[in-house]
């Protein structure tokens, strides 16, 4: 299955309507229906259908731990904290909007001023036991710092394993290898964002 | 053959049949899952062993090591003995079934039948019918509503389908004039055209339908239909006791397949260039496959439809078949 199928929201084109006949009213029609159903040999049609499928061997099973279905870029799984691509600083400016908007009230953060009087985030945790993966935090974040990742397999010995800041933050070496992809999902920048930027009146 | 030799040979045969058919019953569950899966565009068991072949073993370990729960309010002795009845009758029925043609090994001629009794058909059918006591007693003893409903449905099945089995098999027996399965087999030794299914097609269909009911397989799996009565008579069972019901069910399926091939499909006579031993294996495999095939394809019937089908359709047809056979035989 390709990603295009997931992105295609116009599903109505794939519908097929199954014609359903009106039930017969007249006795003769009823009799005809009985005859038709009796001699059509529906039981053998059934046998043929399943046999055909067995011989065609068109298997739809996804052997899950070995194979995985592609997920949409808009999938909202366990969160990630991103870094700035060039400098490697954390993107989060500690504005606290995500903490404020979170409807499950599960984000907790601690901030302080660093030596340059910039806000620095010291602690950032999400209680995934309460998170409803609504995506508001990713949408509200002005810096695209908190985003949803594609990691949906959250089985672990400890709930806390997912949600500490270190687990969510992009590792520095990972960033240096250029592996931090810009987030294409929920709350991302639109593709033509650059064209749409207008100068604010202050610049005159 | 002296008595000692006879006893030793019989014991060896019993052990072989017991071992072979337990293994086949286990393998049958694997085949069933695979065939059903392929028919539903799935893969079935894949992870344990190559292509999931060792799944049976894993299931065996699971069943053996599970806790054996006996519910508090159940009638304990009956509850505990019911699965044994199920498995035992299934294997006892096999005692009078000739499985293969005679063959020689180390200069000794072997008859692959444990007891060649002259009323083989009656014995097999009788023992298989008494096998239905297993679900009946299990359901009634387990102090569970679903179990009780399962037992009630067993009673329906027991009362209805034994009649059809007996009547449907009567007509071929009139042709052959013997109740021994070996005689029936030898009657069809003339090749493909001698098969009783050509002279008694109606009886064949009736026998198959009744066989499905007797082994409670899908169109007639009322006794434990999950969607309606959780698991019917087996609701309260766990571990190996539950497993025994299923060994019994699969052994019964194989027995019915053997009976149908012996009585109607030419048994273990040579079939063209195919030697007899292989021929019967092919026939039994096909019938076994047919059991699985219908399970994938057909919906199951309601208890009242089951009774309707039995008493108002199948039984009259069977009686007419017997009468017509009798008239043709007299002329
Ligand atoms: S996804 Fe929703 S619930 Fe989860 S942390 Fe973000 S805002 Fe809170
Ligand atoms: S909204 Fe974004 S920038 Fe603001 S505190 Fe949350 S993660 Fe940091």
Strand content of chain A: 5-15%
Task: Identify every distinct bound molecule in the structure, by name, code or SMILES.
Answer: iron/sulfur cluster
Biggest interface and its residues per chain? A-B, 14 and 14 residues
Average pLDDT reading of chain A: 79
Radius of gyration of chain B, CA atoms, in whole angstroms: 20 Å
The span between the termini of chain A is 52 Å
* Strand order, sheet with most strands of chain B: 1-2
Which architecture of the largest domain in chain A per CATH?
Answer: 2-Layer Sandwich
Instruction: Please tally the β strands of chain A and state the result.
Output: 4
Please trace the helix and strand order of chain A, writing H or E for each element.
HHHEHEEHEHHH
Low-confidence stretches of chain B: none
Task: Characterise this structure.
The complex is a heterodimer of chains A (204) and B (331). Chain A has 204 residues and is an alpha+beta fold. Chain A folds into two domains: 21-57; 79-188, Alpha-Beta Plaits (2-Layer Sandwich). Helix content of chain A is 28%, strand content 10%. In chain A, the strands form two sheets. Chain A has a two-stranded antiparallel ribbon. A two-stranded antiparallel sheet of chain A has the order 2-3. In chain A, a hairpin with a 5-residue loop joins strand 2 (107-113) and strand 3 (119-126). Chain A is elongated and about 90 Å long. The mean pLDDT of chain A is 79. Chain B is mainly alpha-helical. Chain B has one domain. In chain B, 67% of the residues lie in helices and 2% in strands. Chain B contains 13 helices and two strands; from the N terminus they run αααββαααααααααα. In chain B, strands 1-2 form a two-stranded antiparallel ribbon. In chain B, strand 1 and strand 2 form a beta hairpin. The longest helix of chain B is centred in the first third of the chain and has 37 residues, at 3-39. Classes of the chains: A alpha+beta (204), B mainly alpha (331). At the A-B interface, helix 3 of A face helix 1 and helix 12 of B. Residues 92-98, 140-141, 143, 145-146 of chain A line the site of one iron/sulfur cluster.
